[in-house]
Amino acid sequence: MALSSGVIDNELIAAIVDSVGRDKRVRRKLPEGGRIVIDRSLPFLFVYRKPPRSDDPGTERLLLGEAAYLLASGSARLHGAHARLVHTLIAQQHKLFGNFLLFELWAGSDGRDTAADVFRLAAPRHGVPPGLLEQLENMLLSVDTKSGMPVQVAIDYVDEVIPPGRKALLSGRQRQHPPCIHLGLEIPALYRDSQRGAVYPFLLRALHHELARVLKRLCYAFVHSFTHYRPRHFHELGSRAISRTVLEADRRLATISGEFDLLLHVSPVNAPDAWETFKRGRYVRAPELLYRPRPVDPALLKRRLFQTPVERIEDPTLAHIFQQKRDELERRLTLMAERNTPRFLLVSRQLFGDVDLELLQLARQLLLRIDVPRVQRGESLDAERFVQYAREELAYYRRQVPGLPYSVVLCNDVPGMVVTSERLLVGRDACVPAARLQPTLAHMLGTHVLTQFNGSRQPLKVFRTGLAGHESLQEGLAVLSEYLVDGIDLFRLRLLAARVVAVHAITEGADFMCTYRELHRDYGLPKHTAFNVALRVFRAGGFTRDMIYLSGLKQVLDYLGNGGELQTLLLGRVAYEHLPLVEELRWRRLLKPAALTPRYLEAEETQQRLARLRSGMSVIDLLSESGGAPAAG
Predict the structure, then answer these.
(1) Beta bridge mates, 424
(2) Residues 435, 485 contacting (CB under 8 angstroms)
(3) Cβ contacts of residue 435 below 8 Å, gap of 6+?
(4) Element of type H or E holding 28
(5) How many CB atoms lie within 10 A of CB 167?
(6) Which is nearest to 487 in space by CA: 314, 626, 325?
């Protein structure tokens, strides 16, 4: 039922209740700025009624995004209509579920004159199970208001649950016929200035997100104890709708993201020539690197970026995802603009972070513990032969999804390999040891292409372009796929560790030659490998992204060792920090199962390796299973 305006008459009430009874979505405007949204047939309703003679900025936003809520005008003339609507809805849903929870919300003081943020529960003296109140009290005590104040919970037992200045929505008789649990919650208005009424947006967003979790958990406890409904998880009680505002923001951000490729435009186009010049110069002068022209004006894209109405997204989980994606795109555009300037390194550190002490110690430990003998490498595949194998691998995935819109392209100006929009670009200088063929295919096609395509099949395009911070998990998953194919080799682990050391070096002020010498002389990397590692980190002014391969591998190992599901990581380009949100969206049925699954999952050896990972393994533990063919430098 679409949004519309009008009076709250018996005909409207009957239409709303009928739609809910038939499990249809209701979204209606009500007089004087009111609104009712009910996602589907559910045994609860959250209510906010505006104060009749005062402003209450920010408070009504705390219910936005819930699966069933009523925002009502505080007008006295509409009170009777609101009461009839609520009572009729309760009577309808009681028939379906055997009970109903009515939960009212209102704002108290801003709490700045007290020593704590106080949540005040209002409960009838009779008819409310003490166990439910205790659960709600514990949930509220766990709320992080971000105000720096401790949280306290008070309970007032009252004859009727009535917000200040309003009338009761339900009389005592109406609460009993049919039975209904009616609770109220006074929220500390810490999200606004008590003098000016100005809203503090960060505090409001934080409280909205925390309260949304509490309300779903409360409803989960209620329905399992007092109704016939049996959801498997409290997130199942969230909204299953994607609003037009969300779809519009998603479309705009995806369009902007698709207009530039940061990785391509910070990668030098003369890497092979730079190495030859470096070698002829006896390894003493940093290379001069050339880059492809930038096809966009970052400033103009930023203008469009901040015209995207992310702040209008009501669902707190989706709002968080899109706000972070917008912020990440802004930093990526800044990197494009600052290429080859001293500011590039600073923005890169903002985007990818710094090497923490634990990761640095792990990298150094790997470099010192792994003694790689200098052996003659076996047969290698040039770029053209690798492209043939990659196209055969794509044909396998097309048997899963006919018409899979991806291709493998041989390029003159790409160092190594890069996955862009529906293409795997392979540079003519790429050389893959034959023993590394399957790990490389699993990395590039079985991870990067596969997750990009699976993301394109999700209702939201952001799962194709990537959630903010997705690259760390992406590269960690890609490296893990190499292990799942045939065991990650010692050369590969050393290479990932060397990248971390190089990133740490540049952030500590080292120049190209100091970093190259540290990698070659102190850690024993071959000259060409040390050059490539340093080049990748120093390109464009200091690109710190290369630390994410080892940090991402740690993340994936931790996730699987703690009971995480590999399939969750394959739904699209997801981020480690967002995995709890991804799980929530799965429970809310806003994400689809993966359309493609990696080829390597068919092998019995892969399942055995996955079982070992689920028992808990660290990066160091992988050393005992390593020893395959050397990785390409």
Answers:
(1) 408, 419
(2) no
(3) 378, 628, 629, 630
(4) strand 26-30
(5) 14
(6) 626
Digit-coded pLDDT (tens) for 537-571: 999 999 999 999 999 999 999 999 999 999 999 99
As a whole number of Å, the end-to-end CA separation of the chain is: 59
Tokens of 441: 């295919």
Looking at residue 441, what is its pLDDT? 95
> What pLDDT is attached to residue 367?
94
Torsion 22-27-31-32 (CA) sign:
positive
Element (H, E) at 442: helix 437-443
Distance CA 507, CA 436 (A): 32
**Tokens (6 digits) for 192:** 């606004």
Give the position of tokens 């390597």.
600
- Strand extents, DSSP E, 236-379: none
pTM of the complete model: 0.91
CA distances from 290 to 272, 503, 515, 529, 550 (A): 11, 21, 20, 20, 28
Q: Cis peptide leading into 164, omega within 30 of 0? A: no
- Residue keyed to tokens 């498997």: 232
Q: What is the CA radius of gyration of the chain?
A: 29
Distance CA 591, CA 207 (A): 25
The residues with which 186 forms a beta bridge, in sequence order, are 106, 120
Per-residue pLDDT reduced to its tens digit, 398-456: 999 999 999 999 988 787 898 988 899 998 888 888 888 999 999 999 999 999 999 99
Cα 12 to Cα 358: distance, rounded to the nearest angstrom: 62
Tens of pLDDT, residues 155-214: 999 988 999 888 988 876 666 667 789 999 999 999 998 788 799 999 999 999 999 999
Instruction: Give residue-wise pLDDT tens across range 285-310.
Output: 999 999 999 989 999 999 999 999 99
Which residue do the tokens 């009971």 mark? 563
pLDDT in tens, 3-25: 444 678 899 999 999 999 999 99
Q: Which residues contact 155 (CB under 8 A, 6 or more apart)?
A: 120, 121, 123, 133, 137
161 near 182, Cβ under 8 Å?
A: yes
Q: Check residue 150 and report its DSSP letter.
A: P
C-alpha distances in Å from residue 247, one per residue of 252, 306, 472, 592 = 9, 16, 26, 16
E-assigned strand segments in 74-198: 101-107, 117-124, 151-158, 181-187
